[in-house]
Every structure is written in C-alpha cells, then in structure tokens.
Amino acid sequence: MAQAIDPSSTVNEIFSLSEAIRDTMTQIAQQLVEYAPQFIGAAVLLLLGWAIASALGLSAQKLVHGLDSLFARVEKSDGVSGENFKRSYARIARKLVFWTVMLFFFAVATNVLGWDLFAGWFHDIFTYLPGIITGMIVILGGFLLSNLAKSAIISAAHRAGIQQSLVMAKVVQIAIIFSAVIIGVEQIGLNIGFLSNVIVVVIAILLAGVVLAFSLGARTLVANIIAAQYIRRHCEPGDSLSIADTEGEVIEISQASIVLETEHGKSVIPAKLFHEQITHIRPRQ
Questions:
Q1: pLDDT tens figures, 55-114
Q2: CA 239/CA 246 separation, integer angstroms
Q3: 242 CB-near residues (< 8 Å, 6+ apart)
Q4: What is the count of structural domains for the chain?
Q5: Is residue 243 part of a domain?
Q6: Integer Cα distance of 251 and 267 in angstroms
Q7: In this predicted structure, what is the pLDDT of residue 257?
Q8: Residue 273, domain extent
Q9: Does residue 182 sit in the same domain as residue 268?
Q10: I need a labelling partner for 171 at 20 to 30 A (CA). Which of 44, 98, 177, 220 fits?
Q11: pLDDT tens column, 127-150
C-alpha cells in the first residue's frame, strides 16, 4: 500500500529551504556591504586612471605627430621630392602610453580589492614592463630618426649633384632602423647577440659604401667651391673674362660657378676650370 505523505514534514522542508536561501542572500548582502568601499575605491581609481591615460596618450600622439609634421616640413623646405611618412607612428605611441598607465592603475585596483592572484600577475608584468617600454621607445625613435636622416641625405646629395641620392638615403634609413630594432630588442631582454653582430657588420659595410659614393660624388662640387672662392680674389662682376673658349662679361660668381653674359646669352661655367685652363681677365673700365 502507498505510504501517506506527512504534510508537516513537507512544510518543514520548505521552511528549511527558504531559510537557507535567506541566509545565503543575507551573507551575500553583508559581503557586498563590507566590500562596497573597496569596489567603489577601485572603480574611482580605474576612472581616474582612464582619464590620466587618455590625456597622456593624447599628448604623446600630438608630440609624435608634431615631429612627423616637422620632418615633412624639412623635406619640403629642402626642395626634395621625397615621399612623406606613409605611416604615422603617433597612434602607436598613444596606445603604448595609454595601456602603460592603465596597467599601473589596474595593479593598484587589484591591491585595493585584495585580489592577490591578479596582483601577482601585475607584479610579474611590471617586472618586464620598463624594458619593454624602453625597447618600444628606442624602436619608435629609430623609425623617426631614420626618416629625418633620409631627408637630410637626399637634400645634401641633391645639392651635390649625386644621381643615386634616393638609394643612398634608403641604405642609411634601413641601417638606422636595424640598429634601433637591435637595441630595442636587447632592452626588452631578448638575447640576439650573434644576429646583432652580423647585422652590425653588414651595416658597417653599407655605410662605408655610402660614404665612399658620397665622397666621390661631392669631389667635383668641392673643387668648384674652392675655385669660386679663389676667383673672387681676381675678378668681380662687370669684368670681361675669357675661359674655356667662352668670352663674356662676368655677371655673377656663385658658390660653384661663374655666370658670363656672352653673345649667345648667359653661360654658366664650372669654377674649377679657372685652375685647369688659361683664363684672360680684363677689368671693367
């Protein structure tokens, strides 16, 4: 026969279950009340950290963007048709600064909340963070410096009349980037001693070739500049001059050449011919 269910026992079980739920909710509420100041403090710290990180990140972005514009202005003022930066590093700098500051405030917030596990993780991160930041700054600075060096070399080679100025500038730019990457990676803590030695040797060979090419290309320009300084001691605009089968009146003595007014118009003669050929000078009356 089926056993009869005792109504009183069922009611007792229901009351016991409700009391257990009520006790659990009470404990949760008490814990929330106890931890409320810590949660509020951590939230305030994170909001403050977000504001500071955003401000510092924006400042870093504007600084790098200003350097970018400055280098582009230098290229434009030098009259060189080199390409401007195709890639802006300002956003990278902004993110780097932002998350560095935020990691610091995350670590402080975990300490406030008493989360020892996360605090240990952030402690390990901060152990390597200075090296990582230094390495990233070195690499970023190397990219910026390489573009500035490229612009300066193109400008100097353009004035010296060297045809392969872009190739020379690219070689120097790549050399600076490689050097910055090597130094940055070593700052991060990675051991690349053998690779760095090989790259340093290759860079030294490339730079030696660039210096040799630049010296050979600038030899004629230097000779003309020296000769122009010597010519100024013997003649001046208005004198009549005969040189290199060309005769005319001296209009201008520039840094590296002589401009004559001849029967056929203006003639620009390299100044070094003054030393290489017989020159006849007739002062103006």
A1: 888 888 787 777 666 666 655 544 444 444 445 567 777 887 888 888 888 877 877 777
A2: 14
A3: 279, 280, 281
A4: 2
A5: yes
A6: 10
A7: 80
A8: 235-282
A9: no
A10: 220
A11: 777 777 787 778 777 877 887 788
- Residues 168 and 247 both lie in one domain: no
The pLDDT value given to residue 201: 74
**10 Å Cβ neighbour count for 154?**
22
- Extract the tokens encoding 249: 């009146």
Query: Strand, coil or helix: what is 78?
Result: coil
My answer on whether 65 and 169 are in the same domain is yes
- Rounded CA gap, 215 and 223, in Å? 12
Taking alpha carbons only, the member of 127, 67, 55 closest to residue 97 is 55
Whether residues 248 and 176 fall in one domain: no
Q: Is the pTM of this model over 0.85?
A: no
Instruction: Please report, for the domain that includes residue 242, its CATH number.
Output: 2.30.30.60
Determine the residue type at 132. Answer: I
Is the residue at 221 inside a domain? no
Same domain, 71 and 178: yes
Sign of CA dihedral 63, 64, 67, 69: negative
